[in-house]
Specification:
By secondary structure, the chain is α/β, with parallel strands linked by helices. It is built from 15 helices and ten strands. Strands 6-5-4-7-8-10-9 form a seven-stranded mixed sheet, covered by helices on one side.
Length: 334
Amino acid sequence: MAFDGASGGPRLAVADIFNSAVAAWAIGAAWELGALDELHAARKLDAAEFADRHGLDPAATAGMFRALAAVGAVERDGSCVTASGTFDEVFRARSFFHWLSRGSAELFRAMPSIMRRENRVGAFYTRDPAAIAFACREISEITYEPVFRAVLDGVDPGSGAIADLGCGGGGRLLEMLERFPGARGVGVDIARPALDSARRALDEAGVGGRVDLVEADVRALEPRPEFAAVDLITCFMMGHDLWPRARCTASLRRLREVFPAATRLLLGDATSTRAVPDTALPVFTLGFEVGHDLMGAYIPTVDEWESVFADGGWRLLRTHRIDAVVGEVIFELG
């Protein structure tokens, strides 16, 4: 069957799929290079001048903006680039694109290989932990943080310590240490690059002397002196890594053992959205869930989470449902 490109139809639809894939990379790059922030503030810029000012190749810079224009994220008139009617939503969602194009690029590139059962052994996939931490800090800001701050209003660790599990670049630790000036902080993460970023950020903010950073797997923590005085534990955007159920139960019990003084655990995570129709998925949902399918990571439902806490030695105090893009929820446990 022949398709007439001029009349749209299937050929144009497929071109849109391809062009959107290219534009996703361009959005991630434009955020990292500062172009999105500049357009958000000034609403227009000159691509050639922007390239010169930032030491960028002019042809490559023009190509990046052309990719953005191809999907309507910006409008182009020669070298002049202007924010379009959809630009502000692109700007709001920029960290999701960075998570995909920078943090998870190698995971999706290797899709055909890692789908084969014989290859799904050992460390069978690769992601960029520093880029993931960078993106997740802002993803958290536009999903979890408003509710998280409200929950913190009812928490007071006093002079105890605060532990953030899966601390990434240290953003949540910094926020809590500024809120609770009498507390110390403990950050735990499996990725050394993320911890290095956290150390730089915390030192620059002047609170580094109040923080211990520990490179460890949250699923297999051992008691440490830094953990003994922890009153408040937070764990965001990595709880699904504790599953399946038997492992999650054991991990939750382990937290009780290695943090003997803890009185509160705030666990914020995505939950399964499999009931949403495939053609009605919001930004990020498909990438997050397919990415975790590729990694072999199980995404539990809210009901599954709520059913595991008692067996894990914790009492569910409140469930705070957010449901921004990936069924986000914060469980308040005591």
